[in-house]
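User: Hey, quick favor. My workstation is busy. Could you predict this chain's structure for me?
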Amino acid sequence: MFANLLRNGKSDNINVSPWIKELNKNRSIKTLESDMQTDVAIVGGGIAGITTAYFTLKYTDNYVVLIEAGKIGHGATGHNAGQVVDYFEKPFSEIVSEYGLELAADGQKAVTSAWDLVDEILEDTKMKINFSKFTGFAGCQDLEQLLTHLENKRLKKSAGIKIHKVKISEDFADLKKIPDKYSDLYTLVPHKKVLELLETDNQEYIAVMQSQKGCMNSALFVEKVCEYLLKQYKDRFKLFENSPVLTLDLYNAIGVLQTKTNFIAAHKVVLCTNGFEYIHITNRAGENIDKKYHKMVYGIVGYMAGYIEEKTKDPIAISYLPDIDVPQDDSRPYFYLTRRNHKYKGDNKSLVCVGGPEKIEDKDSFKYKKNKKYPTLAKNEILKFLKGSFKNTPSNLSDFDFKWHGLMGYTESGIRNVGFEPLNTTLLYNLGCNGVGILPSVYGARKIAMHLAGETIKESIFDPEVQRRVIG
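Assistant: No problem, here it is.
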C-alpha cells in the first residue's frame, strides 16, 4: 500500500524531527584531524554506537574511538518514532521455523532484557530524560492476523516466555474458526472494550493484543550518554563527528578506517551505522566481505508526523493492523501511534506521533538524502488513518507540527546482526533496526561488550554466522 504510493507525488516541507528539536544546539563538536590508533573503533553515533561505547568502556579496559559521519543522534536515532518495544517485526513463528524454538526464545528473552539495560544506563548516568513505560496495545481486524498472533503466543508460552492474553470481541463473527489449541491464550470481552483500549471508533477492529511499551527521545538519550562518557572516561574515550568513514581495510588483527583526510587503526572495528551504503570493506586477510555486507543490509525510509495538543491523557503506544491487501514490496502494513508528555514553551503538553508509510529503496542505486522534502502523499495517508481509526484526533487537524522521515537498516534475515564477521573477526556488527531498533540496539551493545571482553557467549539468532547458515 505505502511503498507504491510514495513512488511519485508532490512534496511538503523538509524533514523536521521533534527529537532533534530537543538537542543541545550549542554543544561543541570535534572532527577527526589526525591519524589515530585505538583498541576499538565504533562507526555510528546513534543509539547502537553510543551504547556499544558505554558498555565497552564500563565492562572492559579498552580505549574507544567513536566516529560519526554527521552529528550524534541525528541519523535514524533522531528520525525514528521514539517507540520502545521488545518484539520483532518478523513473526515469532517464522523465527521458530528458521532457527528452532530454543534459539528463537533465547532471542526474544535477550531483547526483553534490554529494558533492564536501559535502566542500568539511566541509573549510572543520572540523566534527566522523559522515559515513559506503560502497557501498550495493538489492534487487528481479521481472523488471519489474529491467528498469527495467537500462534506466536502459543510458541512463546511453550518456551516459558510470559505472555498476555489477547482480548477478542465477543461479537467477532469468526469466533468458531479459532482452533481449540488457542483457547487458553485469549479472553472474550465486549466489543466496546476492544475499541476503548485502541482509542478508536472504527468497528472493524475485533481484537487487541497488549504488551509492555515505552516512549523515549532516543536522540536526547544518546546526547546525554555521550556527555557522561566524555566525562567519566575522558582518558579512554574519544568522539569525532562530521567525519564520515569511506573505506575499511581489514587485516589479520587490525582494521584501518579511512575518512576523507585521516586514518584510524583499531584492533577491533564495530559497525553500528545505517550509513551502510557509503562504506566499502576490503578484507585483506581472506574472502571478500564487501558484497556480503551490502547484501546483508538494505534501506527503508519511514515517514512519520506529529502534532502537539493539551495534556489530557496518559502516554500510550498503539499499533493498528488494518485489513488490507499489501503489495509484496511493503514491509509494514500497519500504522503505529504514540502519545507522550511534551514540553512546549514551558507548558506541559502531549505530543502525538504517527508513522506507517514507507519506501523501500533500490539496493544498487540507493543514497538516502536526509534533507529530502517530505511527501505530501505520506502526510495525507497519515491524516486519513488518524481520522478513520483514532477517535481522539482533533476535528480540525489538517497538517502537523512535525513531519519527518528516517532511514532504517533492514537485514535480509529480518533480525538484528550482532557479533563477529565470520570472514574476519577484526570486524563486528551491531546493526539492522528492522523497524524496531531501540531495545535491540541496546541489547546488541551489551553483547558486543561481552565479545570484546573475551567472554564465551552462547550461539544466538543474532550471530552473523548463524544467520548466514540459516538464511544463506
